[in-house]
Amino acid sequence: RGDGYGSRGALIVLEGLDRSGKSSQCRMLLSYLEGLGHSAELWRFPDRSTSVGKMINEYLSDKSQLDDHTIHLLFSANRWEKRSLMETKLKMGTTLIIDRYSYSGVVFSSAKGLDFEWCKTPEIGLLAPDLVVYLDILPEKAAERAGYGGERYEQLEFQKKVSQCYKLLSDFSWEIIDACQSMEDVGKQIKEIVLDQVMACKKGKPLSNLWP
Ligand code: NYM
Ligand code: MG
């Protein structure tokens, strides 16, 4: 409806270690929601298409070196540059499925040793997700999966630290799903909880900001 009265889309975030299966699950979720006739889009962070995103991409592919604080703020800026479009889409009734969000921002930087609270600060005021789905996998298992090791951060020892930081940041509201199950089983569980949120948002659940 786009009138802001009880018809907004849901903000759904998928988080997890590299190779936990987020991107595949996001795609499956998108076609599921579209198949049910819901308006939905799949977004991802970092969004490498913007000029900030291009700097992030160079850093991740080891073509540039940046101070840890600087890259942290770039990741955050990359979310801020999408905030108003995000709000517009949600208010128009489109559900957004997001592959990584502020949580990745906090855990990857704090895993390097940056102060946890400092890492959270630039995220204040971004839209809070209606649901965070965490694809839980042991770092050792993720490392066995194909495609691992191509980018900065995709190293077992570092991912172990990231995993611990996710555990510090997560709270009771997150949906933790065992990512070692088959893709279909993981998908089935995600679909159910996401649909609940989509319906709750349609009925007028209010939007809020980080950090709740
Ligand atoms: N990453 C992602 C961060 O360090 N901070 C952030 O804010 C975000 C969104 O970028 N290893 C890291 C996590 C990943 C890497 O993401 C690239 P992806 O989803 O593998 O393209
Ligand atoms: Mg990756």
Automatic annotation (TrEMBL):
One of its GO terms (molecular function) is ATP binding. Keywords: ATP-binding, Kinase, Nucleotide biosynthesis, Nucleotide-binding, Transferase. The keyword Transferase applies. GO terms for cellular component: cytosol; mitochondrion; nucleus. GO terms for biological process: dTDP biosynthetic process; dTTP biosynthetic process; dUDP biosynthetic process. Pathway: Pyrimidine metabolism; dTTP biosynthesis. It comes from the Eukaryota. The keyword ATP-binding applies. Its EC number is 2.7.4.9. It is an enzyme of class 2 (transferase). Residues 14-190 form the Thymidylate kinase-like domain. Belongs to the thymidylate kinase family. This is Thymidylate kinase. It comes from Cephalotus follicularis. The chain holds residues 65 to 276 of 276 of the full protein.
